[in-house]
Design a protein that fits this description.
Pfam families: AllH. This is DUF2877 domain-containing protein. InterPro entries: AllH-like. By secondary structure, the protein is an alpha/beta fold. 45% of the residues lie in helices and 16% in strands. The chain has two domains: 8-114, no CATH class; 122-307, no CATH class. The chain starts with 7 loop residues before the first strand and ends with a helix. Mean pLDDT is 91; it is low at 306-314.
Length: 314
Protein backbone atom coordinates (compact mmCIF):
# COMPACT_ATOMS: atom_id res chain seq x y z
CA UNK A 1 0.00 0.00 0.00
CA UNK A 2 1.38 3.37 -1.00
CA UNK A 3 1.85 5.61 2.05
CA UNK A 4 -0.19 8.80 2.06
CA UNK A 5 1.89 11.97 2.39
CA UNK A 6 0.69 14.12 5.28
CA UNK A 7 0.89 17.87 4.71
CA UNK A 8 3.30 19.70 6.97
CA UNK A 9 2.02 23.08 8.11
CA UNK A 10 4.02 26.06 9.31
CA UNK A 11 2.69 29.41 10.49
CA UNK A 12 4.36 32.52 9.15
CA UNK A 13 6.08 34.81 11.62
CA UNK A 14 5.42 37.95 9.57
CA UNK A 15 4.69 38.97 6.01
CA UNK A 16 4.64 42.04 3.81
CA UNK A 17 1.16 43.54 3.93
CA UNK A 18 1.55 44.61 0.30
CA UNK A 19 1.38 40.92 -0.69
CA UNK A 20 -2.31 40.67 0.18
CA UNK A 21 -3.39 41.77 -3.29
CA UNK A 22 -0.75 39.61 -5.00
CA UNK A 23 -1.77 36.43 -3.19
CA UNK A 24 -5.53 36.95 -3.39
CA UNK A 25 -5.20 37.75 -7.09
CA UNK A 26 -3.11 34.62 -7.68
CA UNK A 27 -5.68 32.50 -5.83
CA UNK A 28 -8.38 33.74 -8.21
CA UNK A 29 -6.37 33.13 -11.40
CA UNK A 30 -5.45 29.47 -11.63
CA UNK A 31 -3.44 28.02 -14.50
CA UNK A 32 -4.97 25.31 -16.65
CA UNK A 33 -3.75 22.61 -14.24
CA UNK A 34 -5.35 24.33 -11.26
CA UNK A 35 -2.10 25.69 -9.82
CA UNK A 36 -1.29 29.36 -9.23
CA UNK A 37 2.47 29.79 -9.37
CA UNK A 38 5.86 28.12 -9.71
CA UNK A 39 9.01 27.80 -7.66
CA UNK A 40 11.50 30.25 -9.16
CA UNK A 41 14.60 29.36 -7.14
CA UNK A 42 15.62 27.52 -3.98
CA UNK A 43 18.39 28.57 -1.60
CA UNK A 44 19.37 27.55 1.91
CA UNK A 45 17.45 30.32 3.66
CA UNK A 46 14.94 31.38 0.99
CA UNK A 47 12.64 29.84 -1.59
CA UNK A 48 11.38 32.27 -4.24
CA UNK A 49 7.96 31.72 -5.79
CA UNK A 50 6.65 33.37 -8.95
CA UNK A 51 2.97 34.32 -9.08
CA UNK A 52 2.35 35.74 -12.56
CA UNK A 53 5.16 38.31 -12.77
CA UNK A 54 5.42 38.90 -8.99
CA UNK A 55 8.36 37.32 -7.16
CA UNK A 56 7.57 36.34 -3.56
CA UNK A 57 10.22 35.19 -1.07
CA UNK A 58 9.47 32.67 1.67
CA UNK A 59 12.39 33.15 4.03
CA UNK A 60 13.93 31.93 7.25
CA UNK A 61 12.71 34.36 9.92
CA UNK A 62 16.30 34.96 10.97
CA UNK A 63 16.30 37.27 7.94
CA UNK A 64 14.69 40.66 8.49
CA UNK A 65 11.36 41.75 7.05
CA UNK A 66 11.54 42.86 3.43
CA UNK A 67 9.31 43.70 0.47
CA UNK A 68 7.31 40.79 -0.98
CA UNK A 69 8.64 38.50 1.77
CA UNK A 70 6.97 35.96 4.05
CA UNK A 71 9.09 35.02 7.08
CA UNK A 72 8.71 31.55 8.58
CA UNK A 73 10.53 29.60 11.32
CA UNK A 74 12.19 27.28 8.79
CA UNK A 75 15.51 27.20 6.95
CA UNK A 76 17.51 24.69 4.89
CA UNK A 77 15.03 25.03 2.06
CA UNK A 78 17.46 23.41 -0.35
CA UNK A 79 17.31 20.20 1.72
CA UNK A 80 13.52 19.92 1.74
CA UNK A 81 13.09 18.55 -1.76
CA UNK A 82 11.47 21.70 -3.14
CA UNK A 83 12.39 21.87 -6.80
CA UNK A 84 12.76 24.77 -9.21
CA UNK A 85 9.77 24.90 -11.55
CA UNK A 86 7.47 22.99 -9.18
CA UNK A 87 3.81 24.04 -9.16
CA UNK A 88 2.58 26.08 -6.21
CA UNK A 89 -0.92 26.69 -4.86
CA UNK A 90 -2.20 29.96 -3.38
CA UNK A 91 -5.32 29.16 -1.37
CA UNK A 92 -7.70 31.88 -0.24
CA UNK A 93 -4.98 34.51 -0.25
CA UNK A 94 -3.67 33.39 3.14
CA UNK A 95 -2.10 29.99 2.45
CA UNK A 96 0.64 28.77 0.12
CA UNK A 97 1.23 25.09 -0.64
CA UNK A 98 4.58 23.89 -1.97
CA UNK A 99 5.43 20.30 -2.98
CA UNK A 100 8.38 18.93 -1.01
CA UNK A 101 10.12 15.60 -0.45
CA UNK A 102 7.65 14.56 2.27
CA UNK A 103 4.50 15.66 0.48
CA UNK A 104 3.20 19.20 0.82
CA UNK A 105 4.49 22.09 2.87
CA UNK A 106 1.68 24.46 3.83
CA UNK A 107 2.62 28.01 4.79
CA UNK A 108 -0.22 29.73 6.65
CA UNK A 109 -0.41 33.50 6.99
CA UNK A 110 -3.31 33.43 9.45
CA UNK A 111 -2.44 35.33 12.60
CA UNK A 112 0.98 36.39 11.35
CA UNK A 113 2.21 39.93 11.95
CA UNK A 114 1.97 42.15 8.88
CA UNK A 115 4.90 44.39 7.97
CA UNK A 116 4.93 47.56 5.92
CA UNK A 117 8.01 49.42 4.75
CA UNK A 118 8.30 52.57 6.88
CA UNK A 119 8.94 55.94 5.31
CA UNK A 120 11.19 58.65 6.70
CA UNK A 121 11.11 62.41 6.18
CA UNK A 122 14.73 63.48 5.72
CA UNK A 123 13.98 67.16 5.20
CA UNK A 124 15.07 67.73 8.83
CA UNK A 125 18.70 66.95 7.99
CA UNK A 126 21.19 69.79 7.68
CA UNK A 127 24.44 69.90 5.74
CA UNK A 128 26.28 69.24 9.01
CA UNK A 129 24.06 66.22 9.80
CA UNK A 130 24.83 64.73 6.39
CA UNK A 131 28.56 65.28 6.90
CA UNK A 132 28.44 63.42 10.23
CA UNK A 133 26.57 60.49 8.64
CA UNK A 134 29.08 60.34 5.78
CA UNK A 135 31.94 60.24 8.27
CA UNK A 136 30.30 57.32 10.10
CA UNK A 137 29.85 55.34 6.88
CA UNK A 138 33.43 56.12 5.80
CA UNK A 139 34.63 54.13 8.82
CA UNK A 140 32.99 50.94 7.50
CA UNK A 141 34.90 48.41 5.37
CA UNK A 142 34.76 49.04 1.63
CA UNK A 143 33.23 46.31 -0.56
CA UNK A 144 35.74 43.84 -1.98
CA UNK A 145 34.94 41.42 -4.84
CA UNK A 146 35.12 37.75 -3.85
CA UNK A 147 35.19 35.99 -7.25
CA UNK A 148 37.49 36.27 -10.29
CA UNK A 149 34.59 37.73 -12.27
CA UNK A 150 33.94 40.26 -9.52
CA UNK A 151 37.59 41.29 -9.47
CA UNK A 152 37.64 41.63 -13.25
CA UNK A 153 34.54 43.85 -13.18
CA UNK A 154 35.65 45.90 -10.18
CA UNK A 155 37.54 48.59 -12.10
CA UNK A 156 34.61 49.11 -14.48
CA UNK A 157 32.20 49.20 -11.52
CA UNK A 158 34.24 51.92 -9.82
CA UNK A 159 34.34 53.93 -13.04
CA UNK A 160 30.57 53.72 -13.46
CA UNK A 161 29.96 54.67 -9.83
CA UNK A 162 32.12 57.72 -10.50
CA UNK A 163 29.98 58.37 -13.57
CA UNK A 164 26.88 58.36 -11.39
CA UNK A 165 28.57 60.68 -8.88
CA UNK A 166 29.29 63.14 -11.69
CA UNK A 167 25.76 62.89 -13.09
CA UNK A 168 24.20 63.60 -9.69
CA UNK A 169 26.53 66.56 -9.20
CA UNK A 170 25.64 68.14 -12.55
CA UNK A 171 21.93 67.62 -11.94
CA UNK A 172 21.12 66.44 -15.46
CA UNK A 173 18.24 63.94 -15.52
CA UNK A 174 19.35 62.22 -18.72
CA UNK A 175 22.90 61.84 -17.40
CA UNK A 176 21.52 60.26 -14.21
CA UNK A 177 19.32 57.87 -16.20
CA UNK A 178 22.26 56.87 -18.40
CA UNK A 179 24.58 56.39 -15.41
CA UNK A 180 22.00 54.24 -13.64
CA UNK A 181 21.47 52.14 -16.76
CA UNK A 182 25.23 51.57 -17.02
CA UNK A 183 25.32 50.08 -13.51
CA UNK A 184 22.55 47.53 -14.05
CA UNK A 185 23.75 43.94 -14.28
CA UNK A 186 27.38 44.86 -13.59
CA UNK A 187 29.36 42.73 -11.17
CA UNK A 188 29.08 39.49 -9.25
CA UNK A 189 26.35 37.81 -7.22
CA UNK A 190 22.65 36.94 -7.45
CA UNK A 191 22.15 40.67 -7.18
CA UNK A 192 25.11 42.13 -9.11
CA UNK A 193 27.17 44.82 -7.39
CA UNK A 194 25.99 47.59 -9.71
CA UNK A 195 22.38 46.69 -8.94
CA UNK A 196 23.09 46.73 -5.20
CA UNK A 197 24.65 50.18 -5.47
CA UNK A 198 21.51 51.37 -7.28
CA UNK A 199 19.32 49.76 -4.61
CA UNK A 200 21.00 51.81 -1.88
CA UNK A 201 21.00 55.00 -3.93
CA UNK A 202 17.37 54.81 -5.04
CA UNK A 203 16.04 53.73 -1.64
CA UNK A 204 17.48 56.84 -0.01
CA UNK A 205 16.44 59.09 -2.90
CA UNK A 206 12.87 57.78 -2.60
CA UNK A 207 12.50 58.92 1.01
CA UNK A 208 10.45 62.02 1.70
CA UNK A 209 12.21 65.36 1.90
CA UNK A 210 15.39 64.57 -0.03
CA UNK A 211 16.79 66.82 -2.72
CA UNK A 212 17.62 63.65 -4.66
CA UNK A 213 13.91 62.96 -4.94
CA UNK A 214 13.92 65.05 -8.14
CA UNK A 215 15.93 62.29 -9.85
CA UNK A 216 13.42 59.52 -9.05
CA UNK A 217 11.72 59.58 -12.49
CA UNK A 218 15.10 59.15 -14.23
CA UNK A 219 16.20 56.43 -11.80
CA UNK A 220 12.86 54.66 -12.10
CA UNK A 221 13.03 54.71 -15.91
CA UNK A 222 16.51 53.16 -15.82
CA UNK A 223 15.49 50.46 -13.35
CA UNK A 224 12.39 49.43 -15.26
CA UNK A 225 14.01 49.62 -18.70
CA UNK A 226 17.04 47.63 -17.49
CA UNK A 227 15.16 44.79 -15.84
CA UNK A 228 15.90 42.36 -18.66
CA UNK A 229 19.67 42.94 -18.34
CA UNK A 230 19.84 41.46 -14.86
CA UNK A 231 18.23 38.63 -12.90
CA UNK A 232 14.60 38.71 -11.81
CA UNK A 233 15.50 38.82 -8.11
CA UNK A 234 17.75 41.82 -8.62
CA UNK A 235 15.30 43.62 -10.91
CA UNK A 236 12.56 43.10 -8.32
CA UNK A 237 14.75 44.39 -5.49
CA UNK A 238 15.61 47.56 -7.42
CA UNK A 239 11.96 48.14 -8.35
CA UNK A 240 10.99 47.98 -4.69
CA UNK A 241 13.83 50.32 -3.74
CA UNK A 242 12.84 53.00 -6.25
CA UNK A 243 9.37 52.85 -4.65
CA UNK A 244 10.98 53.51 -1.25
CA UNK A 245 10.80 49.90 0.00
CA UNK A 246 13.75 47.88 1.26
CA UNK A 247 14.76 45.44 3.97
CA UNK A 248 13.94 46.51 7.52
CA UNK A 249 17.63 46.84 8.40
CA UNK A 250 17.93 49.47 5.65
CA UNK A 251 14.93 51.36 7.00
CA UNK A 252 16.47 51.16 10.48
CA UNK A 253 19.60 52.80 9.07
CA UNK A 254 17.54 55.54 7.40
CA UNK A 255 15.57 56.13 10.63
CA UNK A 256 18.83 56.45 12.57
CA UNK A 257 20.04 58.93 9.95
CA UNK A 258 16.85 60.98 10.33
CA UNK A 259 17.10 60.89 14.14
CA UNK A 260 20.80 61.83 14.10
CA UNK A 261 21.46 58.64 16.09
CA UNK A 262 25.12 57.80 15.44
CA UNK A 263 25.13 54.58 17.48
CA UNK A 264 21.92 53.41 15.82
CA UNK A 265 23.38 54.22 12.41
CA UNK A 266 26.45 52.09 13.08
CA UNK A 267 24.39 49.19 14.47
CA UNK A 268 22.09 49.23 11.44
CA UNK A 269 25.05 49.47 9.06
CA UNK A 270 26.63 46.43 10.73
CA UNK A 271 23.42 44.46 10.07
CA UNK A 272 23.31 45.62 6.46
CA UNK A 273 26.87 44.38 5.98
CA UNK A 274 25.60 40.86 6.78
CA UNK A 275 23.43 40.80 3.64
CA UNK A 276 24.91 38.30 1.18
CA UNK A 277 28.63 38.04 0.45
CA UNK A 278 29.05 41.56 -0.92
CA UNK A 279 25.49 42.87 -1.32
CA UNK A 280 25.33 44.66 2.02
CA UNK A 281 28.60 46.49 1.43
CA UNK A 282 27.54 47.44 -2.10
CA UNK A 283 24.15 48.70 -0.88
CA UNK A 284 25.94 50.84 1.70
CA UNK A 285 28.12 52.20 -1.12
CA UNK A 286 24.92 53.29 -2.86
CA UNK A 287 23.56 54.88 0.31
CA UNK A 288 26.85 56.69 0.82
CA UNK A 289 26.75 57.90 -2.80
CA UNK A 290 23.25 59.26 -2.19
CA UNK A 291 24.30 61.00 1.04
CA UNK A 292 27.30 62.51 -0.72
CA UNK A 293 25.09 63.90 -3.49
CA UNK A 294 22.54 65.14 -0.95
CA UNK A 295 25.32 66.86 1.02
CA UNK A 296 26.66 68.51 -2.14
CA UNK A 297 23.17 69.73 -3.08
CA UNK A 298 22.66 71.20 0.39
CA UNK A 299 26.07 72.87 0.25
CA UNK A 300 25.23 74.39 -3.14
CA UNK A 301 22.05 75.87 -1.71
CA UNK A 302 19.67 73.84 -3.87
CA UNK A 303 16.07 73.71 -2.72
CA UNK A 304 13.25 71.22 -2.99
CA UNK A 305 10.62 71.77 -5.70
CA UNK A 306 7.97 72.58 -3.11
CA UNK A 307 10.27 75.21 -1.58
CA UNK A 308 10.69 76.83 -5.01
CA UNK A 309 6.91 76.89 -5.41
CA UNK A 310 6.53 78.65 -2.06
CA UNK A 311 9.05 81.31 -3.13
CA UNK A 312 7.15 81.93 -6.37
CA UNK A 313 3.86 82.32 -4.48
CA UNK A 314 5.29 84.76 -1.91
Amino acid sequence: MTPVAIPVAVSATSWDAALAETLSGAAERAFGDGTHGTVHSVHRRVVNVLFDDALVAIADDGIDDAPATIRVPLSDWDARGIRQGAAVLAVGGDRIELPCADGTLVVSLCGAVTWSAPRADLSVLTTADLAVALSALDALPAPEPVTPFGRAADELLRARIEGMRTALRTGDDEAVRSAASALIGLGEGLTPSGDDVLTGLTLLAAQDGTLLNRFLPALSDAVHDGGERTGLLSATTMAHAVAGRGRQSLHDLIAALRDRDGDGLRRAADRVLQIGHTSGADILSGIRLALEAEHAAHSAGRTRPRDDEKKEQS
